[in-house]
Each structure stands twice: as structure tokens, then as C-alpha cells.
Design brief:
The complex is a heterodimer. Chain A has 13 helices and ten strands. By secondary structure, chain A is α/β, with parallel strands linked by helices. In chain A, the strands form two sheets. Chain A has a six-stranded mixed sheet with strand order 6-7-8-3-9-10, with helices on both faces. Chain A has a four-stranded antiparallel sheet with strand order 2-1-4-5. The relative contact order of chain A is 0.18. The N terminus of chain A is likely disordered. Chain B has two domains: about 280 residues, ABC transporter involved in vitamin B12 uptake, BtuC (Orthogonal Bundle); about 110 residues, no CATH class. Chain B has 18 helices and no strands. In chain B, helix 8 packs antiparallel against helix 10, helix 11 runs parallel beside helix 13 and helix 16 packs across helix 18. The chains are: A alpha/beta, B mainly alpha. The interface between A and B is medium-sized, with 36 and 30 residues.
């Protein structure tokens, strides 16, 4: 760990202690993930609060998505601990909803919008449970929340990128979770979709649920999020956006890749 | 022969033929529906490795049974042997693709050829064994129904029914894993075990199909029905159902055909019947078929040329493209000498106006459900209401209606 991050941690000591409350929605300790011989994520600690929107921010290849996938057990971790609402991941899967990157699936797959959303009901239906009217209604409500009710019978390949992202979000809503993990939900979507998604996420937050997004757009971090984790393989800083999301920490995260002029444009308080 | 074929189709061509036809149909349903999930998981080739890896097991089972003093040709014993070696091949493919840098296709190629080669060596050895003269194990390569016993048919039928039950039981997790394995894992589905179950299912179908269609052609029964069904529907459940039905019908008809003449091998005939259904679908299926796509492309091309031509007329630009000229001439929008007719001028003005309307519409309506529909060809009237268009026209100014338009 660098001097700087130790300093930040002690500076943020008060907040981190309160976040360490045993039942934090998602707590990561010493997470290390590597592809081959090169660590993609190295010894990252993070605690994501409830009733808040958190962002995982960092440059390309910084391990943002990898960290999220490791937290879910999708990629194996070399070391580290994941606790969800104070319990091991395996016991708490029911309370987690996941929205993968849009590019991770084949959109020519023979399935309709409503079938994809119904996949979110799997934990409720199990192997043989029948889709009852109330399940169908639930799918409909989730589609309405993301403004996709009119597209329910379309094959998913006939949707635009933004619409596909909304369908993925609707599937996560159908899971009825308390912790939402989203991998780049705003990547390559149109302005209307970005607005629709952020409205849904804010509603989740208002209901007391925790939302964690891998996010790439520095310009919207301060507007959308309450809590931020800055990483570049290692953790650079973590805490409330108002305190942590500043020029010095961004410079430390992005290094030379982020021109000072760019940081100035974000109109951040310079630490 | 046609008469015998009809008799066979109606299960009246004799006890043995009826037995084979019913067994084949059950096998076809199991293979079609199980293969559909393999196809959706994009691992169709794995079935090839599984099938070829059964051969050494058949040889070893025969030798073991003979050495124990039993009948080397006992179908159940041969099936157990083939299942063991197919399972071994499967685990090897899985291990190679996970533990080494080799991709799955390379692992499949290696396992398939090595196991098959070893199996052929074993068959040759068996040929030279004293009791091997009448072993007839080669029939497992291409399948044979000659001398099929009642108990063999019962084994095939029971196995097929079991496989169908497994498909019904596992359809949901298999669909989730095939579409989005990361999401499935995050939802708590044991993806690796579901994948193994899927492979186990394919292995089971392969083993029960060995006697009837043979190990080389069982792959066709797993995959052809699924790819055929995909032409007709965009829904997972229907792909699986249709693949099962197609597999069952193809196997039944194929078995009946092969019973209608002496020395017609069952496996190849079944595959030919299934292929006929595939060919018809490939060519004529609405939507995804070759013919439908070609027609769609052609129509689209003509629409583009028409639109380009009209906009060129509106801007007073010369039209050089021969196809554009032909399209406009055929519709009477230009005269032989290329000068626009009255109708042509009116439609050209309308085309230009619609372009301007779209320009305005795309600045007003941020929602891509509207602005995303702009592709030069879509008529704005199909996206916006009359009132919305009137509001746009008010912004553009000029006459609310262009002659010949709206």
C-alpha cells in the first residue's frame, strides 16, 4: 500500500468504521484476482453501503469488472474474502441481482424480451415451478419500470443497445434483490436509456437497497453516485464521492492517462 | 417398396420393424431435444467427441464379457462399456480445455481421433480372436436394426424416455446457462454441474442410439433437428420442442423407410430424412430462410434506390445509377429520357420534406424509440402521429401539405 492510500484510509477512518458494521451489503477484504501470472486486482478492500449508489471507477484494464465478477464468484479469486450482508456469499445469493455487460451474451439467441426477464424469477420458480399469472404480472411490472413493456414479445436481437441494457436491468429487478451489482450499465446507451436506468437505480436506493456500478464516465460520477471506489489494480481511494472524488485521487488512479485539463473540466475540488 | 413403406409407417410391416420404428422415434425425440440445448450452448462439436469416444469402450466391454465367459454381444454390457469410455473422453476434453492453453475445439479434435483410432485397433484385435468372427461390432459404426431383440428395443425406449424426462427437469437451468452463464452463476446456479449434466445427457443419448444409428451418425440426430428448428422460431422452448418433434418424426420415417427394403441401413436413412427437413427449412423458412433473406435484401435494395433517386430528383442532381433509373422508370416517376414526370416531382418533393421533418423530429424527440427509427427509409408517418407531424411542419414553415404527399 502506498503512503497516500494509508493516509486516506486513516483520514476516512470514521466513515469506514461505521461501514464496517457487520451487515454491510457488500464487503471485500484483500481481494486479489489474476489472469495468468499478472494480478488484475491486487489486495483490494472495499465496503459498499446500503441505501446508496456506489461506483467502481478506474481506467481501462484497472480490474473494475474483474473485481465485480470476483465478488460474485464468476472469476476465481486468488485470495480475499467476500461478505454479503454480513454472511458468506454462498448463503446470500438470493439477495443479489447482477447485470452483466451487454456484450457478454449472444443477442441472436432464440428468446424473447419477456423470457429474458422471466429468467430473473428462476430462484423463485426452481426447476419445475409453473409460471403463474402473478409471475407473468411480475415480469410485466419489471418491463414497465424500465419502459420496455411494448417490446415484451420481440426477439432480443431486434432491440437497440440501450433497449437491451434495459431488458437486462428488468431481469435484475425480477430477482427482487437487496444488492444490485451492475457492470457498465451506461456503456454505449442513448441518453433516454441512461435517464431511465438512473431513475430506476435511484428508486432502488430510495427503497434502502444497495446499488454498485462499474462506471467509466467520470463526468457523471458526482451527479449519480454517493460512494466511490477508485481502483487501478490496487485501491487508490474509497469513500463518499464528495470527499474522495477529487483531482489528486483521480490523478493517482489514472496517472498520465488523464490530462490535468480533463480533471479541470470536471470542476472538482482540488485536494 | 412404396407399399412396404406404408405398411412400415403404420407399424404393420412385422413385429421387428414396428419395434425398431417405435424405438427410433423415442430416440429421435430424446436426441433432438437434448441436442437443442447443446446447440444453444454452442458446444455442438462436443457430441462428436462423445460419440467417437464410445468405440474403445465397446471393444473393451466385448473382450471383458467374452473373457468372463458371457455373450460378448450383450447390448446392455456394450452400452455400459461405451458410456464409461465416452465419459472418460468427455472428462479429458474438459480437463484439456481448462488446464492447458488449448481451446475446446483442439481438445475435441485430439480426443475424438485418438479414442476412435484406439477403438478401431481394438475391433481389429477382436476380429482375430477366435470368437470374434461373428462379433459384428462394426455395426456400431453406422447402426443396424438387423437382429434387434425385444430387450434391445426396451433398453432404447426406456433410455429415450429417461433422457426426455431429464430434459424436462433441467430445461430452465440449461436455458439460463446457455444464454448467460455469468448471470446463471450469479443467480446461484451451479453452472459447471449443469454443463456436466448436459454432457451426461448427450452421452446417454449417444449410448442408447449406438445400436440403431451408430456412433458416426448419432451426431446428426443431436444437431440437425436443433438447427432445423432454429429456422422457424425465435423462442427457446419452441426450438427445443420442435427439435424433439423433428427428431422423432425423422427417426420414425427413416426407420420405416429402411424397413421397406432389404439392406437399407437405418442410421443413414434417418439422417437423410432429417437432412431433407433441414434443407427445406434452410431454403424456405420465413424470416431466417435463404430465400426469405434474399427477397428481403432485394426489396431493401430497390427501396434504397427509389429513395436515392427521389432525393436526387428533388435536389436536381443527375442520376447515373442504372438500377435507380430502372426503378424510377418502372414506377413512371421519370420519362424514358430521365426527366421527372409530374408524379415523380411530387414524390421527390415529399421525400425532401420528410427528410427535413426527420431532422426536426430528431432534435425534438430524445427518446431513441422515435429518433432511433430514422434510417432514411422509414416513413415518418409510421412513427409520429398526424398532430406531431403538423407541429414539426409548423416549425419548418412553408406549406403544410406538399402536393401528392401525406
Amino acid at each position: 500500500m502506498t503512503m497516500q492510500s494509508v493516509e486516506l484510509a486513516s483520514e476516512a477512518g470514521k466513515v469506514i468504521r461505521s461501514d464496517l458494521a457487520a451487515d454491510a451489503p457488500l464487503a471485500l477484504r484483500g481481494m486479489t484476482v489474476s489472469y495468468g501470472q499478472k494480478p488484475a486486482v491486487f489486495s483490494v478492500d472495499a465496503t459498499f453501503p446500503s441505501a446508496a449508489m456506489s461506483a467502481i471507477v478506474g481506467p481501462n484494464g484497472a480490474g473494475k469488472s474483474t473485481l465485480l465478477k470476483a465478488a460474485l464468484g464468476i472469476v476465481p479469486r486468488l485470495s480475499g474474502q467476500v461478505t454479503v450482508f454480513g454472511a458468506p456469499l454462498a448463503e446470500m445469493r438470493r439477495r443479489i441481482a447482477y447485470v452483466p455487460q451487454r456484450a457478454s451474451v449472444d443477442w441472436d439467441f432464440p428468446t424473447r424480451v419477456r423470457d429474458v426477464v422471466a429468467m430473473g424469477l428462476y430462484r423463485e420458480l426452481g426447476l419445475l415451478g409453473l409460471m403463474r399469472p402473478r409471475h407473468r404480472a411480475q415480469v410485466q411490472v419489471c418491463l414497465e419500470r424500465v419502459g420496455m413493456a411494448d417490446f415484451a414479445d420481440r426477439q432480443i436481437g431486434q432491440l437497440s443497445g440501450g433497449q437491451q441494457q434495459r431488458v437486462f436491468l428488468a431481469r435484475a429487478l425480477a430477482q427482487g434483490a437487496d444488492l444490485y451489482l451492475l457492470d457498465e450499465p451506461f456503456a454505449g446507451v442513448d441518453a433516454a436509456t441512461e435517464k431511465a436506468i438512473i431513475d430506476v437505480l435511484k428508486a432502488l436506493k430510495a427503497e434502502g437497497r444497495a446499488v454498485v456500478c462499474v462506471h467509466h464516465d467520470l463526468a457523471t460520477v458526482a451527479e449519480y453516485f454517493d460512494h466511490v471506489l477508485l481502483i487501478n489494480v490496487r485501491k487508490v481511494a474509497e469513500g463518499p464521492v464528495a470527499r474522495v472524488f477529487n483531482g489528486a485521487n483521480l490523478q493517482a488512479t489514472y496517472g498520465g492517462r488523464l490530462a490535468t485539463a480533463h480533471i479541470d473540466q470536471l470542476k472538482l475540488p482540488v485536494a | 417398396m412404396p407399399a412396404t413403406f406404408l405398411l412400415a409407417l403404420t407399424l404393420n410391416a412385422g413385429y421387428n420393424a414396428a419395434l425398431v420404428a417405435v424405438g427410433a422415434a423415442l430416440l429421435g425425440i430424446a436426441a433432438g431435444s437434448a441436442g437443442a440445448f447443446l446447440f444453444l450452448r454452442k458446444r455442438a462439436l462436443v457430441s462428436d467427441a462423445v460419440a467417437h469416444a464410445t468405440l474403445p469402450g465397446i471393444g473393451i466391454a466385448f473382450i471383458v464379457m467374452v473373457l468372463l465367459g458371457g455373450d460378448g454381444r450383450n447390448l446392455f454390457g456394450l452400452m455400459v462399456g461405451s458410456a464409461v469410455s465416452a465419459g472418460l473422453g468427455l472428462l479429458l476434453v474438459d480437463w484439456i480445455s481448462r488446464r492447458t492453453r488449448l481451446a475446446e475445439d483442439a481438445a475435441i479434435g485430439a480426443v475424438l481421433s485418438v479414442f476412435f483410432g484406439f477403438g478401431i485397433v481394438l475391433l481389429t484385435v477382436i476380429q482375430t480372436m477366435s470368437r470374434g468372427q461373428q462379433a459384428g461390432l462394426e455395426s456400431f459404426l453406422l447402426g443396424s436394426t438387423a437382429g434387434m431383440l425385444m430387450q434391445d428395443a426396451v433398453v432404447v425406449a426406456a433410455g429415450g424416455a429417461l433422457a426426455v424426462a431429464a430434459v424436462v427437469l433441467l430445461r430452465r437451468p440449461m436455458t439460463l446457462v446457455a444464454f448467460d452463464p455469468d448471470f446463471a452463476l450469479a443467480s446461484g446456479i451451479p453452472v459447471r454441474r449443469v454443463d456436466l449434466a448436459m454432457m451426461g445427457l448427450v452421452m446417454g443419448v449417444t449410448v442408447i442410439g449406438l445400436k440403431l444409428v451408430g456412433l458416426i451418425l448419432i451426431v446428426a440426430m443431436l444437431i440437425i433437428p436443433a438447427v432445423t428448428a432454429r429456422f422457424w422460431t425465435d423462442r427457446t422452448d419452441r426450438v427445443v420442442l420442435a427439435a424433439g418433434a423433428l427428431g422423432g418424426v425423422a427417426a420414425y420415417v427413416g426407420a420405416a423407410l429402411s424397413a421397406s427394403a432389404p439392406n437399407l441401413p437405418t442410421g443413414p436413412i434417418i439422417v437423410v430424412v432429417a437432412f431433407a427437413a433441414f434443407l427445406v427449412s434452410l431454403l424456405f423458412a420465413p424470416g431466417r430462410g435463404v430465400l426469405a433473406s434474399a427477397l428481403r435484401r432485394r426489396r431493401f435494395k430497390l427501396r434504397v434506390h427509389r429513395r436515392q433517386g427521389l432525393l436526387a430528383l428533388a435536389h436536381g442532381e443527375p442520376i447515373l445509377d442504372q438500377l435507380t433509373l430502372a426503378v424510377l422508370r418502372r414506377e413512371g416517376l421519370i420519362r424514358e429520357d430521365g426527366v421527372a414526370t409530374e408524379e415523380g416531382r411530387a414524390l421527390a418533393a415529399k421525400a425532401l420534406r420528410d427528410e427535413r421533418r426527420w431532422q426536426v423530429a430528431r432534435t425534438i424527440y430524445q427518446d431513441e424509440a422515435i429518433s432511433g427509427r430514422y434510417d432514411v427509409l422509414t416513413a415518418i408517418e409510421t412513427v409520429l402521429t398526424r398532430d406531431q407531424i403538423a407541429a414539426i411542419d409548423a416549425r419548418i414553415g412553408g406549406p403544410a401539405l406538399v402536393a401528392g404527399g401525406a
